[in-house]
Amino acid sequence: MYKKILIPIDLFHPEVAERIIAVGKFLAGPDSQIILLNVMEQTPSYVEAYMPDGILEENRKLALEKLKALARSNGIEAIFEVRIGQPHGSILDTAESREADLIIIGSHRPG
């Protein structure tokens, strides 16, 4: 069994999230930690200048709440992390900083 399982979640595809969380539950031992990660793409600065104050932080809080709801609905206890940046780099950075020994990434195709 794995000790620390990182599961990056694309909140725009909850059906994929459900499947990969189920895989994480299956591979987790009784003392395992599951880390649910959502990566928000970096907004270009020229766009950010026209956004209302606080909208990025509000979106981050909303993403965190959605991750918590996914954990509750799937019956797991998890650690939650929301990062801003490029998904591939943020996933690898999180895996390193959290010392994950497994990353479960969902596929949109073939299903």
Walk me through this protein's architecture.
This protein is α/β, with parallel strands linked by helices and 111 residues long. The chain contains 4 helices and 4 strands. It has a 4-stranded parallel sheet with strand order 3-2-1-4, with helices on both faces. Strand 1, helix 1 and strand 2 form a beta-alpha-beta unit. It is elongated and about 45 Å long.
Order of helices and strands: EHEHHEHE
Radius of gyration, in angstroms, nearest whole number? 15 Å
- Tell me the β content: 25-35%
- Which consecutive residue ranges, at least 5 long each, have pLDDT under 50? none
Number of helices: 4
Distance between the termini: 25 Å
The side-by-side strand order for the widest beta sheet comes to 3-2-1-4
Main beta-sheet annotation: 4 strands, parallel
Average predicted local confidence, pLDDT: 92
Task: Classify the helix fraction into a percent range.
Answer: 40-55%
- The overall strand count is 4
Shape: elongated
Structural class: alpha/beta
